Amino acid sequence: MTTHVVQDTAALLGRSLRHIARSPDTIITTVVMPIAFMLLFVYVLGGAIETGTDSYVTYLLPGILLITVASGISYTAYRLFLDTTSGIFERFHAMPIARSSVLWAHVLTSLVANLISLVVVVGVALLMGFRSGAGVSGWLAVTGILALFTVALTWIAVIPGLTATSVDGASVFSYPLILLPFISSAFVPTATMPGPVRWFAEHQPVTAIVDAIRDLLTGQPVGTGIWTALAWCVGILVVAYVLADLAYRRRIA
Fold it and tell me: How far apart (Å, rounded) are the C-alpha atoms in residues 16 and 29?
């Protein structure tokens, strides 16, 4: 049974990746906004922002990476919505394939596409002066956190992809996720924020994840912060998966 699921998922994943290969504008569109934010904050606003670090792009990059993921996962909802409205979704379920493979193929496609987008954004950051003190293990840890964060957010994207009644409805959900890093430690230290905003910023998941990635990239001790970040990612993943599975069962019922 497990082999059957893996083979079916791999086949559907190949289909989705071929679509992306024929339409690279998906990657381009995903990275344009994060790169624009990075250019704006570093070269226009960065001089007026005090973070206590010598390189603002180094401070900024972790938050930009999360915005890149939040921007990219909207395409998962879009592609899944198209499948559910074009009839291909029903055709898949009429075939002798594992039902879970249909969703997992979309999730893994999102993971691959977002990792490519993240590499592009890091490349631009290097051109802008980003430098990392992380070793191989640090970079592997950063990659693991970003991959887990991507999978968690992608399962959130699956829900509107299955339940939306329009293309706009399928993708608009990502806007709050893109804006969430702005109320966190991604762009400025939370200590500079007024009371209620500071409390929210310090207790929302983006701050924990950004701080863990920043410490890893700069080669600083992460302490228990990395476990907090991982707990947030796993918690979001579990809740999103359960809700997505319920929406999926209602869709195919």
Answer: 17
